[in-house]
Structure formats: C-alpha cells, structure tokens
Amino acid sequence: MSGTTRGGTAIVGVAESDLGKVAEGVTPQDLMAQGIVRALDDAGLTLGDVDGLFLAASQLRMPTISMCEYLGIAPRYMDSSFTGGSSFEALAAHAALALEAGACDVAVIAYGSTQRSQRGKFTPQRDLNDYDAPFRPRLPITGYALAASRHMAEYGTRREDLAEIAVAARAWAKMNPVAFDQRDLTVEDVLNAPMISTPLGVKDCCLVTDGGGAVVMVRAERAKSLKQKPVYLLGHGEAQPHHAITNMPDLTETGAKASGAQAYAMAGLGAQDMDVAQLYDAFTITTLLFLEDLGFCAKGEGGAFVREGGIAPGGRLPVNTSGGGLSYCHPGMFGLFLMIEATRQLRGTCGARQVEGAETAIAHGNGGVLAAQATLVLGTEATL
Fold it and tell me: S-S: 296 plus which of 61, 291, 325, 363, CB 3.0-4.6 Å?
C-alpha cells in the first residue's frame, strides 16, 4: 500500500490499560477506554482532540461504533479493518493515509480484551474451511505446529532452538515491571513442559491475559509541538498470502517477506539498519520465521541465530524487549503492544531494558495462522 510519505506522520502517545487479570465486571470497552485516555494524556491531548478512531477487537462486533458511544465522541473518520493480530500495524498505515489526506488530525488506534477473565466463557469465531475441517485441527496451535515441524524437517531446527526464544523473552520480561510472568525459565523447563501440539509445548505458547492499550498518531508537523519526543512512521507494508493453513504456499515462508520488503523500501532501510525488533510471538516458531523472513538471517538459519542468547539481553539483536506475548502479555491479540514497546524504545524510556542509542525499530504483526502480515519501520528524528 502506498500513498503515504516517509516520516509524514508520527506516534506521539502510547499506553497500556491494566494488564494481567482484571476485576470481575471489567469489560473490553473499559480496558480500551483506559488505554485511550492514558495514551492521550501521554501525548498531551484530550478526548476532544480525537477525530480519527481506528479499532480492532475480537470480543466486540462493532468496536468503533461501540467505543464512540462509550466515550461520547463523534470522530469524522473511523476504520475497523480486522486482520487478527496484525490489525494494529495495518491500522497504523491506514491512519497515516487518513492523516496525510486530511481526513482526520488526531488518530487513535486501540484495543481491549478480557480474554483471561472470560476463559472458558468466550469462544473466538473461526471461519470454516473445507480442507482443514475433516482433520479436526486444534487451531491456531495445530497450524503453527505444522510450520514448526516442516522447518525442523527442512533445516534441522531443534526444539532447543525454539526454547531459546522463550527463554530470551523471559529474560527481557524480568526487566519489565508490568510483565505478567517474570519467573525463572530455562531451556530444560521449556523442553520438559507438557506437550500441546507436537513439537510445541505449553512454554512455546503465548500467555492468555486481559489487557488493552492505545497509540496516538498525528501529522509530523504537529508532532513536534506535543508533549513527547515523536516516533516517525518511516515505512509500512502488508501481505495476506493465504487464510487457511492448508493454503499456505510454503509452511516455512510467511507473508512477512513481502510486507517487510515493502516497509524497508519505503523507509530506505534494511534489516541491517534496525536497532530493535518487535516481532509477533504467539508461539516460539513465529519469532524464528519472522527473523528469517524480515531479513535478519537467511532462510533456515533462524535456529543458529537465536542460539546461546542471540536475541536475549546482550545478544546480537534485541528482540521483543517487553518480554513479548510469551512473557509480558497477550490478551487475544498482541499487535498493538509491539508498537507501544517500539515507541518507548525509540523514546529511550524503557528503563532497565532500554537498548542504548536505539534510533530505528521494526514492529511486525501477525494475524490468523501465519496468514495476515503487517510491518512498520519506525525511527527517531535523527533518521529523517
């Protein structure tokens, strides 16, 4: 998707809602609203400034309409495009288009979910597929397990390599005060955890938490006058090569290759220029596949790349510095939180987990079973 300018828009406010397990009676709207109000305060703006609303939700059928009523606002531009966990990176690109076209002046992207509190009471809707259904897959994990098995067969990737990804995420989470799980975790712990869908055990799977958050965007010229150091949108890309896992063209190559190439081309940068990577980690295998498809290593070399702390604190590439979906939070969809952490890293406000001198970041969202991919390349003023 084109039509936007490199550095033409910027993220000026970010915030999470309460995370973890919220009190009984708290709704997805409550968490979304909490994130929006906090993000606007972070930017030095108010609800009265919002005239663009970009929402995606798995527990709300019409999130934009629902939240306008909840918040008592009437924005002149709304978008509720839904591509699963990658919705938020895609909505950021849509927001940039709307801002640059003058369709709105202050765009808010937000999400909220009570997936942990509603565990056992809420069943996500899934589209039926004639090719998958006869085999009764336990989605989404069966699909990700197929991708992991194929990667192991073709490239010799080991369960120990995938375990390194979970251990690295936990090491970062220990430096994030709001991370849900900060307990010690070793490769042996991951390997010995109960198997869910071979070769993925329970520690290869993301958390199930409650939570929400929001991101505020404006045009670049306005960003400079607001409260926080702007984080500029340098490039973006989207790709949806399949929906059902049985229609995935190659189980070891995702649409991230195409969406990443689009984002890098617009930004005029490449993987070698990224200081921080925030990659959707619904399962350990997703991180490995995205490291390869976004160009941080060659296809088949993801296992070697993550070995011996390659993406942990002090490793060759800081990945998922919040602790990711594996250890920080994962309220049904995680894409928004990748943008929040990338922004904080580029502002230099991440405290103990701050990557020194970070000027560029990639935030990559994944939706469905490796189906919908959306990539953002972000940068500080120094990168313009």
Answer: 291
